[in-house]
Amino acid sequence: MNRRTQQKQKNRFIRIVTLVLFAAIIILADIFLLVSHNREFSERENRVLAKPPVLTTSNLLSGKYMTQAESFISDQFFLRDGWITYKLNADKLLGKKESNGVYLGKEGYLIEQAKEPAEEDFERNLDAIRDFALRHAGDQNIVMTVIPNAVYVMSHLLPTGAPAIDQEAILDRISEKVGTVLHFEDLTQDLIAHRHEYIYYKSDHHWTSLGARYAFDALYPSLGITDPVDTYTQYKVTDQFSGTLASASGASDVRDEIDLFVPDSDIQYVVEYVGDSKKSATIYSSSALDTNSKYEVFLAGNHPLIKIRTTAPNKKNLLLIKDSYANAFVQFLLPYYGTIYIVDPRYYSDDLDKLVTTGEITDILFLYNVNTFVEDNSIAGALTAES
User: Fold this and answer.
1) Residue 385's closest CA among 131, 139, 180, 122?
2) Sequence-separated (6 or more) residues with CB below 8 Å from residue 236
3) Residue 282 pLDDT exceeds 60
4) Reduced to 3 states, what is the DSSP secondary structure of residue 258?
């Protein structure tokens, strides 16, 4: 048998195997559709699960059906949560120090890997922030900070040999681009000074209330706060928090406590979840503590726009543009502003320039964490001036 004949037979075999696999995926997807109770959300992984694929001619020809089917079968797989844990245990036996983008760190810490900037979105966001600051220069005190993640601040807990991106170099790039039009504060060294304390969760990618407090202590002078509260009543509301990193890695035995820091002041306030027709007398959501998403005890999670009116005697109004790291930070801001507007650009679609005017904003704070900021593709759209 010559080489050309062998190659033809090999190609024929590959085509047959491909067709068989293709048919198997379609059959498996259809079986799941018929007999399974499909979950829409995984509380353990804290994410929306893949929806059933739609079988159409265009989806088949484009390959979209195959992609959807593979994701659907993977997400809805029987005993999926158990398999995630099984894989983690197998990886540990093989000596692996990473699972699904999560380092298995020292002292029981799970540490999210550092993210590289998505360059096009990264530069577009920085340009938009710069333009936004220039439009409001002189009228508002504009401050920005981007919080380094545990992978950098607590690098001493990384597994031996784990590569790490220099997040401070990323912060230098941000400062160079926007630092001439607003007050950019790099809090890296302030957090590193406390890296042996409980400033990041072990099971989750967020910082703790203690980490947020240290950040506030370093940031308040830039915000024009001259007489900060120096005492807080601390409440431990749970010690059974298992966060996003535990879910992603399968390390379901890692637990955290969540603490609230309530400033010792007589300030009263009301929280309005704009668009949801919902108001509350507290920024804390006790019902979140009965779910797997316990970090949502802060502000009940992420929302397009939250408005907090306080009895603070001054007339300063703050616009906070943020990701979920800021949710645990808001508790430290309450005594200092008459009104606080909290905007998450991932969900906000209205005119921010108009909000600055109608809200009589005196101060603007951008607060993100590095890993979210370098991958975010929503900031530029939210900040771009409407024509």
Assistant:
1) 131
2) 257, 258, 259
3) yes
4) strand
